[in-house]
């Protein structure tokens, strides 16, 4: 099935685990996507993330790379995932 993580059509509490592989770094509203994942996750379930974010690297190169990545690929490499999650 293909659908937008921000607007999933699944019932509540249906999945034991969720795996997101590089998806949220392309999402315009990752918080909304996370809320949807939580909605469809069973109590006690786990969400696993694989992202290539910079994890608080303040270097100028990351900022320049982020601008390029967003413009060309729609990918935010400089999101602070610790705060978002």
Q: How would you characterize this protein structure?
A:
The chain is an alpha+beta fold and 85 residues long. Strand 1 (15-21), helix 1 and strand 2 (41-50) form a beta-alpha-beta unit. The protein has a single domain, classed as Vaccinia Virus protein VP39 (Rossmann fold, 3-Layer(aba) Sandwich), CATH 3.40.50. A two-stranded parallel ribbon has the order 1-2. It has helices at 30-40, 60-73, 81-84; strands spanning 15-21, 41-50. The protein contains 3 helices and 2 strands; from the N terminus they run E-H-E-H-H.
- Top CATH class: Alpha Beta
Average residue pLDDT: 81
Multimerization state: single chain
Name the CATH architecture.
Answer: 3-Layer(aba) Sandwich
End-to-end separation in angstroms reads 25 Å
Radius of gyration: 14 Å
Strand content: 15-25%
Structural class by secondary-structure content: alpha+beta
Q: What's the main sheet like?
A: 2 strands, parallel
Number of domains: 1
Morphology: elongated
Instruction: List unreliable stretches of 5+ residues.
Output: none
Q: Biggest sheet: strands side by side, in what order?
A: 1-2
What's the helix count?
3
- Would you report the number of β strands? 2
* Secondary structure: helix percent: 25-40%
CATH homologous superfamily descriptor: Vaccinia Virus protein VP39
N to C succession of SSEs: EHEHH
CATH domain fold name: Rossmann fold
Q: Would you kindly provide a brief summary of this structure?
A:
With 85 residues, this protein is α+β, with helices and mostly antiparallel strands. The protein has 3 helices and 2 strands; from the N terminus they run βαβαα. 11% of the residues are buried.
């Amino acid at each position: 099935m293909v659908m937008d993580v921000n607007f999933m059509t699944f019932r509540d509490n249906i999945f034991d685990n969720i795996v997101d592989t590089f998806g949220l770094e392309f999402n315009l509203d990752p918080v909304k996507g996370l809320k949807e994942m939580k909605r469809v996750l069973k109590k006690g379930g786990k969400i696993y993330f694989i992202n290539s974010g910079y994890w608080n690297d303040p270097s100028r190169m990351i900022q320049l790379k982020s601008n390029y990545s967003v413009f060309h690929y729609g990918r935010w490499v400089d999101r602070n995932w610790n705060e978002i999650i």
